[in-house]
Amino acid sequence: MVLAVIPARYASTRLPGKPLLDLGGESLVQRVYGAVRGAGVVDEVVVATDDERILQHVRGFGGAAVMTSADHPSGTDRVAEAARAYPTADLVVNVQGDEPFLLPEQLAAVVAPFSDDAVDIATLATPIRDEHALLSPNVVKVVRGTAGQALYFSRHAIPYLHDLPVGRWIDEGNHLQHIGLYAFRAPVLQLLTRLSPGELERQESLEQLRWLATGHRIHVALTDRPSLGIDTPADLAEALRRFGG
User: Fold this and answer.
1) Is the pTM of this model over 0.90?
2) Sequence-distant (≥ 6) Cβ neighbours of residue 174 within 8 angstroms
């Protein structure tokens, strides 16, 4: 059984109450829930929250939701707690709660690699097409190996193209932006939550480096469609435009 978990917290520095924001007649969390449910890729969808308002809202539109601890240090920990309520799940997909434009093919891309028994974790990346994203520390980059495995994630522009000036890097098409959609084998997800943060993770502030540093292989699938997460008022305005709000 494939379970999708959508972590949704009420607190947000730039957009308080973000999961409940209205996007053209439906809340953000409802849009995400509907996108995942409608994709036809997973068997069950549940919202994991620490806020009673979100819990009741999701149940009010007919969705499944569970309360989780308010003390989780990351969305992965919240997803893992929610997944324990679904012991028959073989795979768990962590869907960011601010991605209402998630596509069915993107969900399918992180689930498909598990036909290989060697894959325990999968995620997604897309080519970087503009220099601002390439050079921004807010855009996470990933380098893949020849078999599609993640070699490293960084907020810096990697790989470093030593034969070219930085201004020409974007023309080469060699850089990938990480998209924070993950899928895990259920036992591996629980194991990851017991790992202690490592030095690389602290330096880059990227949780997935903890997994790489402790020997876990992460398969990186590719998509041609970049994501539009809603993190800022400008992102919200663009989402409203798309939904006709």
Assistant:
1) yes
2) 159, 161
